[in-house]
Structures are given as C-alpha cells and as structure tokens.
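INFO worker-7 received task bundle
INFO bundle size: 2
INFO processing item 0
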Amino acid sequence: MSSAPTSPSAAVPVVQPGSFLTLHYRLAGPQGDIINTFADKPATLSLGAGELSPVVESRLIGLEEGARASFDLPAGAAFGERNPEMQQWVARTLLAQLGDPDEQYSVGDVVQFPTPDGSGSYAGAVQQVKPEAVLFDFNHPLAGQPVTFEVHLIGVL
C-alpha cells in the first residue's frame, strides 16, 4: 500500500498589477471616513481598472492574501491637489435636461452626472445654489488632503 504523494504547501497569493481583489477598505481624510466597507459587504475590484487611485493601488502591491495594513498618505498624494477649475457653475436648464426638473439642491449634496459618451458617471458636490445655476465641485472629496487608507485583503486572484 503506497501513500499518496504530499503536495507542496500552496503559496499564499500576493497582490500584483491586474490582481482581482476581495477586500474591506477605508479611505478617510481629516473630516473622517469617505468610504468604509468594514461594516458591510467586502468590495471586489481589479487593480488597474481605475476603481482606486494609482497611488492607493500601489500600496496594495506585494501584500499577501489575509494581510491587514494601514497607510497614511500625505496631502495631495492619493487624489492629487484640489483644482479650482474643477468648480463649475451648471445652469438650471442643463440640470433639468439631465435629471428631474423639480430637483432641489442643497449645499453638500453629491450629484451624479453622466459622462459625455453616456458610458459612465462622475460626481459633483454642491457648493452654492442660485436660482439660475448651481456651483458644483468635481474634485475628489479627498483631493489636497492627507488620507488614511486601511485595508484587509480577503482574497487575491
């Protein structure tokens, strides 16, 4: 009676460019959490697909499946500096064409806009409201701010 050959222990998967990940993560700035999946379902994403900023993604490269890590990124490193040109007035007539003509906007609201080609969307935060137009800030909420990035890698493919 022969014994079955023993297989070498499988290596723990390591994050590489293009890896598909299941993870919990938190992105926070000085005012607190912007994204936090730890209390909900984990996120799934593919590195290089633009779901996280390249600087944030680079912190994941080389981490092993099961790893927990926290990174403090200096102001502007994770999402760039704030760009004043990313604040734009949008006419109420255009807002009515893009969505509900009776929509009420308040400072702090985040509004989704379709990309020009209709294949995706981007968000703007309401800064000011006037009868004829609304001022939106299309900068990332953490642009120009220090960021804490915390992660628990559940799976790496």
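INFO item 0 finished
INFO processing item 1
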Amino acid sequence: MQTTGDTRRATAERRRDTLERLGTERDMWVSTAHPDHGPHQVPLWFAWDGRAVWMCTGAASATVRNLRADPRVRLGLPDTLDVVLLQGEAECFPGDEVPGEAADAFAAKFGWDPRTEEGSYVYARVVPETVRAWRGTSELRGRVIMRDGVWLG
C-alpha cells in the first residue's frame, strides 16, 4: 500500500494506480444481493485481463445464486486507505463453458484450476461500468475514474 497523505492525484494517476493494483492484487470483496435475503458479501480471488475481472466460486454458492437472479455486483479491493470500488454486471460461465484464455490465466495466477476439481464451479466475469478510487478525504471529490464503461482523464 502506498499513501500520499494530503496530496491529491490527478485522474490519470488514479487510473494508472488502479490498473496496477488490478493487475497485482489477489483478493477482492464481492457484494451481491438476493431479492428475499438481502446483501451478501464475500472475498474471492480474482484475475484482471485488462478489461474485466474474472472470479471463480462454487456453482451452488450464494454468490452464484444471487448473480443469476440479479447480475449487478459491486467489487472492492481490500485496502481502506487506498480505496478502489468497481461496479458492473456479472456474466456467469460454468467451468466447461468459460473461455480457455480466462481460465488458464486464473489457474496460472493462483496455481489452482477449478476446471480440474470434482465439484462444479462457476466463473464470473465483470466488465466494470463504474470505477471509483481515492486515498483520503482530499481525493473524495473526483473519485469516479470510470463512468459508463469509459475511463476518465
């Protein structure tokens, strides 16, 4: 984690820092909701392909059930001093239907390939529609660095 104190980063710098973190971080908080049971939040491993976040979890998980009922999702990197929040819609892929390039990248990053496991797994792909990034109160204004799927700055 790097902090800049009260130094306000330009939008282009926030974008660069965010892309770097998406390429190197391991875990992401995934928030979904069920119409009857409400919010659900779990940490999952993720891989960034330069355009989308790829995650994988058990096919019977609450996360997958929620995403199939309502694909809207919020994602967050786990650092409260260097906040990165993404919002978008998830597309679910059973393990035997996931694009090979995405599954291979996920397996290479984590040394674990869900496609070889006994149980059923689902990959979720989220192309961000909105990204917010800030470090401290000086960056709250202008924290949106992607809007409608387009990077700002």
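INFO item 1 finished
INFO post-check item 1: The beta strands are 27-34, 38-48, 53-58, 72-76, 83-94, 121-134, 144-147, 150-151.
INFO post-check item 1: The chain has three helices and eight strands.
INFO worker-7 idle
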